[in-house]
Amino acid sequence: EMFNDPGIDLSTKSILEQMRQMTPRLSAQIGSNSEVDGEFENYCPFLTFPNEVISNILSRLSPKDRLKARVNKRLNAIEADSKYFEKELNIVEEEVICCRSSIEFESDSISSFVRTKMFFASRESSRTEKSRHTRRQ
Amino acid sequence: PNVKLVTSDNEEFVVDFRIAKMSVTVSRLMEAMNMSETDDASLLSNSIPLPNVTKAVMARVIEWCEKHKNDEPKEEKENDKRGRTTHVVSDWDKEFLKNDEFGRLCQLMGAANYLEIKGLFNDISQTIANMIHGKKSDEIAEMFNIHCDLTEAEKKEIRKKTAWCED
User: Fold this and answer.
1) Which of A69, A91, B35, B115 has the fewest CB within 10 Å, making it most exposed?
2) Is the ipTM of this complex over 0.90?
3) Over chain A, what HEC string results?
4) Which domains, and CATH codes, for chain B?
């Protein structure tokens, strides 16, 4: 299709050069989240996937890997909406002032479901309590 | 019986009915067009248009389907105890996908998603997840050619939140 585009003149410029010029048009078709500097070399096939597909890929990774995958605004937003399941959650109070989490326990209390939104803050603004508590589920 | 599939670049593929049925999308289209396994005339007179799949990608999809046409339906364990979707990619599938450069792998993933071929979709999804596993943020961005559009404040916030998992 690309090569049948009447906008391409094969006689004057190299195909690669013309494709570079077409990139903004291609990006527009793919969606704004895939627009990457308008340069052909920066075209990112990974971001052409819909959010559900990216989410499916990330769901196969550990929480650590998933957090590291937040390399741009869109991936950050997808990851912020995702769910994590952890068998055990340790909350260190002196480093965390607010843990906005919804925790649901399974009937056997083996695992917990945590919607992560943890906000870390400095010690100055945290509680003065120095003792380190660990809660286990 | 055979089914005719026509790609976006007008290439016609004639595939076994069982292979066509592996795609939920094709299956639904056949149903809508009253094409059935026992009605040869309906299969001969109709073809299924697949405007989102090119000839090259379709050939790869059919190759995968040929290999898996006799597979028992596999239940994927979604959300295991650690909350991860688990899928084991077979040796044949690893070999099948390993030579695809990333752009082609993404095209194949797009086709598997559009055609709703769960097995192929899971194989590629797991393959891409395996590529991400163990990588640092900058390595992931480089590998997938992802341009970072985060502001300095957002980067700082993310660094703060992910400090515990950085090596």
Assistant:
1) A91
2) no
3) CHHHCCCCCCCCCCHHHHHHHHHHHHHHHHCHHHCCCCCHHHCCHHHHCCHHHHHHHHCCCCHHHHHHCCCCHHHHHHHHCCCEEECCCCCCCCCEEEECCCEEECCCCCCEEECCCEEECCCCCCCCCCCCCCCCC
4) 2-76+84-133 (3.30.710.10)
B151 pLDDT exceeds 70? yes
- A·B CB contacts under 8 A: 122
Task: Please give the average per-residue pLDDT across B21-49, as a whole number.
Answer: 87
Cα(B165)–Cα(B162) distance, integer angstroms:
6
**Between chains, do A76 and B81 touch, taking CB under 8 Å as contact?**
no
| Binary contact (A65, B141; C-beta < 8 A) | no
Which residue in chain A has the smallest CA separation from B103?
A45
User: How many CA atoms lie within 13 Å of B84's alpha carbon, on the beta-carbon side?
Assistant: 19
What is the least distance, in Å, from the CA of B21 to any CA of chain A?
Answer: 22
| CA–CA dist B38, B91 (Å, integer) | 36
Out of A56, A68, A113, whose CB is closest to B162?
Answer: A68
pTM above 0.90, yes or no: no
Checking DSSP bridges between strand B2-7 and strand B47-50, what pairing results, if any?
parallel
Residues of B in contact with A87 (CB under 8 A): 81-82
Taking a C-beta distance cutoff of 8 angstroms, is the pair B33, B42 a contact? yes
Q: What backbone phi and psi angles, to 5 degrees, belong to A58? A: -70, -25
